[in-house]
Amino acid sequence: MRPLRAGIAAFVVSVAALGAAPPSGAASAPLPARMADTGGGSQLVTAEAPRASATTGTVTWWDRRANGRWVKAGSAPARFGAKGLVEGTLRKQGTNTTPAGLYDLPFAFGTVAAPGGTTVAYRRVQRSSWWCQDNDSRSYNRWTQPRPADCRAAESEHLADYGTQYAHALVIGFNYHRPVRGRGAGIFLHVNGRAATAGCVSVPKADMRRILAWAKPGRAPHMAIGTTGGATAITRY
Length: 237
Description:
- This protein is mainly β.
- It contains two helices and 14 strands.
- The strands form three sheets. A six-stranded mixed sheet has the order 3-2-1-14-5-4, covered by helices on one side.
- β2 and β3 form a beta hairpin.
- The chain starts with 5 loop residues before the first helix and ends in a 10-residue tail after the last strand.
């Protein structure tokens, strides 16, 4: 291809420069403002990974002001499932994937007392506390205390056994309100363990405590999980 003459080249560069400026309210807008839905409340947690295969990313929590503008309240490094992220409606149990989508946050729990300022419903883990993941149980994807006879221990989580990860946690409403057997159970926002998760989202303990003190049930907090782009782009939710 022949080089452009100087005058034409300058004109092209000028036009390109003008075109490079993002339109008002587009890429420069806060992430929640670019999403298809935020759940209808005035608080939102976003968990964004750079790609579907990633096991790390960023959790950010946002407040919507009275004028409708979303403002970042805090952020933290995040960990995702060992096998990355997948569209929530396509997820299969036991795949170590984090379900992308928009979810409510039904309640919180922990092996230790709730942080000061916590107003969301918070359940203290006891030795008899389990999260049933048995597909054949009537208690599938539910907190149970004690564990019911039809929920096999081998197919469930004894919450007290995870003193580090479940020091504090928020239940993510994935497959929770109308559970589909085989899709997955026990997806939480919780404290970091040693590495990637089995499908949950995790953050450092200090940040988990900040999130719990920040979340206000009257403001209907939700959580969006997704990637920067592609089929599981967080802006789709």
